[in-house]
Amino acid sequence: MPYAAQFAQKNLHGLNWPNWLRTTEETSKNSELWMYTEEALNPDKLNKKSAELAVRDQIIQKNSRKGFDFQQDKIAWLHTGEVLPTHMIPDVPQVLLEMEKKELQRMFNPFVKLKGFNTVRDTPVKFLHLFLLGPVKYLFQDFMKGLNNGQEELLALWILFNTHSLNIPSIRSTSIVQYGRV
Questions:
Q1: pLDDT tens digits, the chain, 182 residues: what are they?
Q2: Which domain of life is it from (predicted)?
């Protein structure tokens, strides 16, 4: 229920409760989320924190996973009763420490630093069409142009594709081929 109330911008009593508006500056500041790996020591807590801070960035998630994997390896090593190797003594993996010193910009999403791009206002439709639908369309057309007329097996596979479980209409393979060869 709280999720539906937040979506409708109402509180649990039905009164208007506008959602908190985010800013690009705030998102940029929050993008240093990987630093919470030391505090959280739990991927679930980090995911919750990233949702709270509105930072669901794959670069940050990847660096955070490196931190969690490092901590897990360190704990496993300690359980064996052996002395820790020198590269496992710090709390953060050496790779991340070196990246922080030498290539700090690689640790964060480059879109956060773009001048003139507002991650809050410009994201929804423009970004979706430009970065997702555009490349998919052109890659698909390139793939279809590479097929010769003798490769009708692909058409047969599309005709046999079961769309009933997806709750969508059947795929018209001839239309897809025609669209792909434009």
A1: 676 777 777 888 888 888 777 777 777 777 766 566 556 667 788 788 777 777 777 777 788 888 888 888 998 988 998 888 888 888 888 888 888 888 877 777 776 676 766 766 665 666 666 666 666 677 777 777 777 766 666 766 766 666 667 776 766 666 766 666 66
A2: Eukaryota
Q: Which residues contact residue 64 at a Cβ distance below 8 angstroms, ignoring those fewer than 6 apart?
A: 33, 34, 36, 37, 43, 46
Q: Is residue 161 part of a domain?
A: yes
Q: Which domain holds residue 51?
A: 25-117
Q: Do residues 39 and 85 both lie within one domain?
A: yes
Answer yes or no: pTM beyond 0.70.
Answer: no
Same domain, 134 and 155: yes
Residue type, 128: L
Give the tokens for residue 23. 């800013």
Task: Name beta bridge partners: 88.
Answer: none
Nearest residue to 34 via CA among 55, 16, 18, 52: 55
Residues 89 and 53 both lie in one domain? yes
